[in-house]
Amino acid sequence: MLEIRAARKIFYKGQPDEKIALNGLNLKLGNGDFAVVIGSNGAGKSSMLNAISGALKLDSGNIVINGDDITEKPVHKRAVHIARVFQDPMLGTASSMTVAENMLLAELRGKPHTLRPGLNARRLSDYRERLAMLGLGLEDRLNTRVDLLSGGQRQSLSLVMAVGGSPDLLLLDEHTAALDPRTAEIVMNATVRAVDALKLTTLMVTHNMQHAVDYGNRVVMLDAGQVRLEIGGEEKSRVTVPDLIGHFSTKTDRMMLAS
Amino acid sequence: MDFIQTTLSSFLSLIPVTLAQSLILGFVVAGIMIPFRMLSFPDLTSEGAFPLGGCVCGVAMAAGFSPLIAIALALATGFVAGCSTAFIHLRFRIHTLLAGILVMTMLYSINLRIMGRSNLSVFGSTTVFDWVPFAQPGFPVAKIVAAGFLTLVVFALLNFFFKTEKGTAVRAVGSNPVMAEAQGINVWAATIGGIGLAGAFSALSGALMVQSQGFADVNMGLGILINGLAALMIGEAIVGKEKVWRQLLAPFVGAIVYYQLVSLCLAAGMPPPDLKLATGLFVLIMLALPSLRGSRRAAGPKESFRE
After folding, report:
1. Which residue ranges traverse the bilayer (chain B) (predicted)?
2. pTM
3. Would you call B303 an interface residue with chain A, using a CB distance cutoff of 8 Å?
């Protein structure tokens, strides 16, 4: 369960270019909720995600996951609860290390690192099995350095790494935006399968209105650092792309999204 | 013909001495490799940590401590020096190279303070090389055996460590700090510990050098960094760096080959003052090679380092 209470963040406070990124934002996700976050540029989507992951320190407000107030905790301590897939396929993996080593790092996310040898036969066969489910042939490339993989393969690997160990909260930061349409679909399908199978509480940021309609059980629209609209339950299943676009605040936004 | 013969005979006669020296200096090359390759943290601390280890070891030996205690003290101070560089970089967001220059410069004064003068003879004190069985103390064989044995132990330990869960986490910090942090790895702890370890290796090298040559000198580290880099490049060209064990072996192999090459140049009559210029040019060529080779195509991916 994720709870954001009155989150506030102002950049360049007191300067002419002061910018309110989060303006008392409140959001509550129950266990197993799959929320899709939309909003125009500067609405606060990235700031919200960064505040949850710990990359951004709030001016005021609280963030609580499963009863644990993580507001003051550094990024690496939040990893116990949170797994994240970045937009940039380069960011989510350690490129000079092998596929298996990356899987090991993900398996140990939020756990103590011991002085025992990292990779062993049991782990390798487990990784092979989990990667095989993607159907991309990654299971035969466990000893390949990640920088030799394509962007789609890297992003798929990031996803498998993130959903492993059933994190309390999965953050997806426009994770298919940098991929070609076909690969994006593969990654998106794998995402939905994993989220459904593991009942993961998920927050997915996207600019793709179709994704917002097709996936998840809730849509959250941000504007000026606040939640402007929340659609859930029965209503969510009936919502269409034009409905969503109609809610965007300014005319330019609507035009941009409709094109 | 005559030239070749005299060159060759003096080179051959120098091989054992040079080998002993290069095995000792292999540790400082490892101390340069770990920040550079494992942590993507270009670091200059070794230029100060090497004489620091030497000075601490020299003073401890002169005070009558056992050579092992002297080495342990050198390791500890070198570790602190490395940690300082990493801390300055992380806490004050100062570029890694500048942080290294600061620590290295400050260490010069500290080294002088530790010794109380610019050099100190420890001739006649017991050294670890005296303990090698069946070898006459003071001869290169004893040094080769002792330093070679230590090299094997250190290589085996490093090779074990960097494949453990902790070691994998440290390498992840070097490869992608953002990702490492998101996986719950404490980037500060890994960086400070890793650079500290490297400083300890540089100091170990200095301490062994003092026991080998019989005196400590504040200027003994002059140019060690560029020599170490040259050795590392040669080592990586020979054994490669694609696998962890190859990367870890490279500094030791590189040191052995590099110092034999230096010895060959000196035997051939190259004036010693020219040596630094030659070494510098060599490192420059090795670094420039990828971009020269691919000048028609797009230059390959640049090495990414932390700033």
Report:
1. 12-36, 71-90, 97-116, 141-162, 185-208, 220-239, 248-269, 275-292
2. 0.89
3. no
